[in-house]
Description:
By secondary structure, the chain is mainly alpha-helical. The protein has a domain at 42-421: Up-down Bundle (Amino acid/polyamine transporter I). It has 25 helices and four strands. The strands form two sheets. A two-stranded antiparallel ribbon has the order 1-2. It has a two-stranded antiparallel ribbon with strand order 3-4. α2 (48-59) crosses α8, α3 (63-76) runs antiparallel to α9 (242-253) and α21 (489-520) runs antiparallel to α22. The longest helix has 33 residues, at 195-227. It is globular. It is found in: Membrane.
Amino acid sequence: xxxxxxxxxxxxxxxxxxxxxxxxxxxxxxxxxxxxxxxxxxxxxxxxxxxxxxxxxxxxxxxxxxxxxxxxxxxxxxxxxxxxxxxxxxxxxxxxxxxxxxxxxxxxxxxxxxxxxxxxxxxxxxxxxxxxxxxxxxxxxxxxxxxxxxxxxxxxxxxxxxxxxxxxxxxxxxxxxxxxxxxxxxxxxxxxxxxxxxxxxxxxxxxxxxxxxxxxxxxxxxxxxxxxxxxxxxxxxxxxxxxxxxxxxxxxxxxxxxxxxxxxxxxxxxxxxxxxxxxxxxxxxxxxxxxxxxxxxxxxxxxxxxxxxxxxxxxxxxxxxxxxxxxxxxxxxxxxxxxxxxxxxxxxxxxxxxxxxxxxxxxxxxxxxxxxxxxxxxxxxxxxxxxxxxxxxxxxxxxxxxxxxxxxxxxxxxxxxxxxxxxxxxxxxxxxxxxxxxxxxxxxxxxxxxxxxxxxxxxxxxxxxxxxxxxxxxxxxxxxxxxxxxxxxxxxxxxxxxxxxxxxxxxxxxxxxxxxxxxxxxxxxxxxxxxxxxxxxxxxxxxxxxxxxxxxxxxxxxxxxxxxxxxxxxxxxxxxxxxxxxxxxxxxxxxxxxxxxxxxxxxxxxxxxxxxxxxxxxxxxxxxxxxxxxxxxxxxxxxx
Length: 640
């Protein structure tokens, strides 16, 4: 795909303007390298151990102390353990995709960064905008949840110090939470000290939380063996709500595994990203899955599932055995889990801001890196102040569902990006027209004519623009060729393979969308739902078969930074990941999507009136990778 310079004359009149506008949505940036790095570098101080601490801390929130009671009581029963295992496997599919892209593109921005490289600017903007919503509301909701847990140490919320207690503003009916705002500001201050300092604090808090969970497992296990595990001696056996209830429980507890993506947001700060990022992601997710399953197995074994307290399942389970004192240990675990989750929610946000500002989609203010701490200090402060203000004035619990949209959208686009890299990796890279002009005299001096060996010739950028609206690369090179070489049979076959793979990936996504939409449309007549599911299923199955049969692109091995982790079972694993996350996205409900639509509409307006016209790719010309490498080498010689 050749994407034109934004200033090139493509078409004329309204049609040309519409074509240029659409072109801005699909323009893709290059994997960050020594050629394109124009901004300050973040400090590379994180090891695999730090990444595990960040991943576990961001993933294990207070949900495990509450959610297991609700799901066991209403959906899964004792089969909650299997529900957690299925959800962990589903989350692991996304983790595999994240691990490959984090190794290939180890820069800040996480899913936004990968989407911009593989899919295009328009989708990347929506992903980044959704992540801003996710992290901000998530941090505010977590901070608001800490206050009632802290109050237990003071004997209730009425006994909290006045400067920490919640108050209702007279006449406005707004409940302010000074404690939540103070905690967010405290975490922001911690993050401003540096990435190593904040990761160390995260590891300490996470260690305390894990120790509490181990106490629950060991102490509960002792009580269970002593009492005979009464929760498992039921006439309903292991599946009181059937297999469907078990899978319903899996869909709910899946969100307990969200958080490992925070690890990839620090990719630019990892000492050895190709080695440490896959280790950090995999170990963190494995630890979380094992701890979740063991805690659930103990709690549903101590108390029959129908007697579990929905609000405090673990504390009430221990209290039923006369261990009321355990509530203070469990509350300590809940508070530390919330604090670690809060830190994990605020940590990625400034790095997403920074990545978007580097690309020109947000003001450059957000991309400034402090010379001392080597972190995006201004972005961190803005993030903390905004989240603290939101937590202080608003009860964001009703908006909590919106958090899931950003995560699931990111998971989906990351899986699609893996398919694109494997089958149709970008074979052209953006080069600024000014750079092309600056090295032009050097290219002419070195021998402007193109020889049989495919050396690079002098080319006028404007003449390239005149032909850049043509989608057929060979046609674009007729008048003023960048590289003269005979089109061989192998090249024609490769072009046909890429075209087939592109259409197949698109049809795969369409098939998944049809299947998941039909499956979630309870209001739709049964016959219509079955028909749509059948059509979408056939399209999905045929697309997977075609992708499995055609050869993956040879350039996938050299795309980005080589030598890292490779996602296994392609295309089956990414396809399953897209299917699961798309279903969960559609199943969030109409109310959630209406609220998200307002935020997305604001994002579209920001992009149209600022991001599109300030993008760093605004004046970029897309050229074949080999030619781009020669341009950069020529520039290096010129500067030397």
